[in-house]
Design a protein that fits this description.
The protein has strands at 2-8, 15-22, 28-31, 35-36, 49-53. Strands 1, 2, 3, 4 and 5 form a 5-stranded mixed beta sheet that branches. The chain has no helices and 5 strands. It is globular. By secondary structure, it is mostly beta strands.
Length: 74
């Protein structure tokens, strides 16, 4: 599974993304570098992709899960 955190700067309207590859046990396997834009087609090889809009740029690096695999982006 791939989790993509996406942030849109409210002033400049620039979009930043950071992707995290997760195992079936929801452990981080790999984190991709932060990038400008949201060219999600770069990740077409993944069957399961979750895109999460975050409130701050600093939250792009966060990957948190709750019991039973429910995502929490706080």
């Amino acid at each position: 599974m791939l989790l993509i955190n996406r942030f849109t700067n409210p002033n400049t309207k620039l979009v930043f993304t950071q992707a995290h590859e997760l195992s079936e046990q929801l452990q981080v396997i790999k984190t991709y570098p932060k990038m400008t834009g949201d060219d999600i087609s770069l990740f077409d090889a993944y069957d399961n992709v979750l895109i999460s809009d975050v409130a701050k740029s600093s939250m792009l690096t966060l990957v948190t899960t709750k019991n039973k695999g429910v995502w929490d982006n706080e």
